[in-house]
Amino acid sequence: MRTIPNSLIDQAVAWRHCFHEIPEIGLQEYKTSDRLVQLLTEWGLDVESGIAKTGIVATLKNGEGPSIGLRADMDALPINEQNEFAHCSVHPGCMHACGHDGHMAIMLGAAYHLSRTRQFHGTVYFIFQPAEENAGGGRLMVEEGLFDRFPMDAIYALHNWPGLKAGEVMVNPGVMMASHDSFRITIKGKGCHAAMPELGHDPIIAASELIGALQTILSRRVASQNNAVLSVTQIHAGDAMNVIPEQAEIAGTLRCLQPAVRNQIITIMESFISHFLKPFGVEGELSWIYGYPATENDPDKAELLKQAAIAALGDSSVHWDQPASMAAEDFSFMLQVCPGAYCWLGAQRGDEPSISLHHPGYDFNDDIIANGIQIWVSLVEQSLVMSGQENS
């Protein structure tokens, strides 16, 4: 594996700190985008910006050959940072609590190194995607013609993972992460005085019973080997302490690894709302918000990514075909259109559990920036092999 210069790694750490200081919410990453465009243009890449508002695609071509895309997410989260180091967020109420600052630094390091060494034949598209966290920037980029404008034979992404030791990688030949949907159930009853509940139809009681009933779907209606998570996360009802309200709302999220299970649970929920609520004298309405599909790797591309990670970090550092996460990732939209693969890059410092993603005290582990750059460089050089190197 070709060594990444220490000077480049140090520079990538500085870029990471810069991005951490100026976090921006999805589809508002204007300062971030401007800085990325500046750097990529200085290095001679062909840069197109403004895709899905703030997204960027930088093209590096070296002769004729296949083409691959590498994707890094750009957006931050609406969280007040609790850290006190020099590169803390300067934007109150917003911070890079998921490590996207590190993903961008890794991508920049790989882009710079590959633009100077050019040990490949073909085209690399460096994709900087906005709004991974909530607004589905991956879907927006696809809808705006990402793969029509930049034809790719494969696409890849990585994400730092605090639950995996630094210097290790996990990749699956199938599902990596779950689908993510949200729901809202509106329960309409009949309001009345709280001292005379017999005169009304209480939507709060009905909502409470429905919440418990929904939890039986996974334990009694779905096979135990079909992983899914159904969580009610909100309940809203009433304005006065002596009034039974007309209406109550509950909301939550569903995570699934298989599309068939996702559809099965939706159908069962619709049945519960139609029939379970009737004895309470109330009516329910389900609003379903389809989110991200499951993130599912192409087996062949996952194998290529695994081999690139082995070349970069060693065979013992790469974990293959492990349990998927019930978290979600909008890289899934890109994988639905173009074959590719996604991996987790270990970020845990030492043996103690790391602070989790989306925590106000989270900070990307700078020690893994070199690992990420090495993986991307290895993947490009193995996928876009130079003429005469096939049997070397």
Automatic annotation (TrEMBL):
Keywords: Hydrolase. SUPFAM superfamilies: Bacterial exopeptidase dimerisation domain, Zn-dependent exopeptidases. Residues 182-277 form the Peptidase M20 dimerisation domain. It comes from the Bacteria. The keyword Hydrolase applies. This is M20 aminoacylase family protein.
